[in-house]
């Protein structure tokens, strides 16, 4: 009835809780990069498969994994997300309704450093989430789900480590496509991320947590181009 596609980029710390929240689906496909030994430790009542890919783009991985999905309804989420019982029930109700069709998107609910981020880009942020296999490429007409996706926050160090891994992965992709870093990448790009997250997306209304969140994402942008710069110089 429902296939779940989990996008992973070595998100081992998050996978266990993410998979545990998918008890209501009939199949799980993990797409991306991960340590193969972790797969043997994943427990689920239905089948769990892994598709390795160097891509990190959501749409690319969704398209690749959805072609392998066995069911007509597909949910897609990153490994640092989990599904609440309320959202699981809502998805199941849609999937079991013979008249249901199209695609659905959901808000992201994120508790960061002990407080829920109500702004910082999350207030009006909807993520493509539930797809009917026949209309998976049509996201413009996506309907909104009532209940949010929950984003996992394990602790500050592991969250920062995850951003560093994502920065390294993006740097590798830029390197493959022969992109180079320049002064603007190190200066303007991080400042723009900080400004957009903290001011334009009203992150300042989340207080110090909003500033830390904006800073970490700006620093992730800086680290991406730092890793790219190091790759061209064969420096670890």
Characteristic terms for this protein:
236 residues, alpha/beta, Spore Coat Polysaccharide Biosynthesis Protein SpsA, Chain A, 2 domains, 8 helices
Structural account:
By secondary structure, this protein is an alpha/beta fold. It folds into two domains: 2-105 and 128-147, Spore Coat Polysaccharide Biosynthesis Protein SpsA, Chain A (Alpha-Beta Complex), CATH 3.90.550; 156-231, no CATH class. Helices cover 41% and strands 22% of the residues. It has eight helices and ten strands. Strands 1, 2, 3, 4, 5, 6, 7, 8, 9 and 10 form a ten-stranded mixed sheet that branches. The mean pLDDT is 89.
Taken in chain order, the helices and strands follow as EHEHEHEEHEEEEEHHHH
- State the separation between the terminal residues, measured CA to CA: 46 Å
Strand runs, count: 10
Give the CATH topology of the largest domain: Spore Coat Polysaccharide Biosynthesis Protein SpsA, Chain A
Low-confidence stretches: none
CATH architecture call of the largest domain: Alpha-Beta Complex
Helical residue percent band: 40-55%
- What do we call the CATH homologous superfamily of the largest domain? Spore Coat Polysaccharide Biosynthesis Protein SpsA, Chain A
Radius of gyration from the CA trace? 18 Å
- Beta fraction of the residues? 15-25%
Q: What's the CATH class of the largest domain, please?
A: Alpha Beta
Per DSSP, the total helix count is 8
Structural class of the secondary structure composition? alpha/beta
- What's the main sheet like? 10 strands, mixed
General shape: globular
Whole-number tally of structural domains: 2
What average pLDDT do the residues reach?
Answer: 89
